[in-house]
Amino acid sequence: MKKKIGLALGSGGARGLSEIGILLWLKEHDIKISCIAGTSMGALIGAAAAAGYSPESMKEIALKLNWKDFLKYMRFSFSGKSIFEWDKIESNLRVDFGMKRIEELPVPFACTAADIDSGLEFVFRDGDLVDAIRASACIPGVFPPVHLHGRNLVDGELINPVPLDLAEELGAQRIIGVNTCRSVFSERASHESRHFPVVEKLDEWFRDNMKKAPIISSLAGFRKIAGEDKKERRRRNIVDLFTDSLAIVTSRLLAFERLNAGPHFMIRPQVGGFQDFDFDRADEIIEIGYKEIDSVGEELLDFIDS
Q1: Choosing from 40, 136, 183, 190, which is the catalytic residue?
Q2: How many helices (H) and strands (E) does the chain have?
Q3: Rounded CA gap, 250 and 256, in Å?
Q4: Is 273 exposed, middle or buried (0-12, 13-18, 19+ CB in 10 A)?
Q5: What is the DSSP letter of 248?
């Protein structure tokens, strides 16, 4: 009798788009996924897969999103709790997921978030799917905490970046884990990409279309340092500060991977050089995910059949 194969899709912002490449490979090799657990971006990708979206359709959606389109979904927050609000992003998710509930999905699914008040993990096994995604992917400081079930919930990466144990709880007997998190301890890989991350592109957009927004630019770290050439602009801004802080936590957690989560096979796409908001580089990131799983394909198939 074939064993139940589960996916544990990790966090990583735009780096998590590499998980679409992995889903494409799994589909090509007729590997049936019995359940999916996700964290942060892995919660979004996993929810789409569990809801019946094909990896081809996910790739198509991702490739259509350029950075100017991305701006349409971002709205600055003046609440003092975060840089951006979730409203427009949630509205867009509702177009795709409607009012779907987790317990009604064709493939069993769960995702994880962190309770910012208690420091405990909160697992979504039922309830509104979009609410669960929103909480699991809520980067602290970048987006406001999600108040649900009497708790203030933020990004699950803080507590369970690759939820292997959750996939096992869903019934998986063989777990394929995907680690798209970024380590900050080796070669500062997060700052090796030779491009302008989305926050700097926002700066360009403001200058071209709004004659600058001095207060917002100052708060978000968008201003160009005086006398610097555009190509030599500083690379760390306030969003980098939050996401780099998450990367430190994640790296420490992943140093103690949950080896007791049951038999698992970890895939680590080489996406460390991408920023959390590099959604305009989806084609490259998805291809990296596909090539990474393809490079270990024979070993993975042996693991599944063992």
Answers
A1: 40
A2: 12, 10
A3: 10
A4: buried
A5: H
**Is 155 labeled as catalytic in the residue annotation?**
yes
pLDDT at 194 over 50: no
Q: How far, in Å, CA of 202 to CA of 179, rounded?
A: 28
Span 196-214, mean pLDDT?
48
Helix (H, G, I), strand (E, B) or coil at 101: strand
Active-site position among 11, 34, 115, 155: 155
β partners of residue 184: none
3-state secondary structure of 264: strand
Q: Is 40 a catalytic residue?
A: yes
The two tokens of residue 58 are 């996910």
Q: For residues 46 and 20, is the Cβ–Cβ distance under 8 A?
A: no
Percent of the chain with pLDDT over 90: 49
Q: Could you give the C-alpha distances from 248 to 166, 184, 251, in angstroms and in order?
A: 22, 6, 5
pTM here? 0.79
Would you put residue 12 in left (φ > 0), alpha (ψ -120 to 50) or beta? left
